[in-house]
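Morning run. Coffee first, then this:
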Amino acid sequence: MYAHRFLPGGRDRSGDPVFSVWGIDTIYYGTDLADYVGREFGATEGVIGETSRVSFWCDLIG
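And here it is:
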């Protein structure tokens, strides 16, 4: 997507979380693309809620 923000690829569905990957640090950065855009540009604040499960990436976050 942009810089070190990523959406998981290879799936034909919407609503996947946005991840921030910087070196070995991987975190959720939004519950989906709309939530990420709101957080990035200041329209959304607070704790990231429930996200859909994405193999490998969610395991990496733990």
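The chain has one domain: 5-61. Good start to the day.
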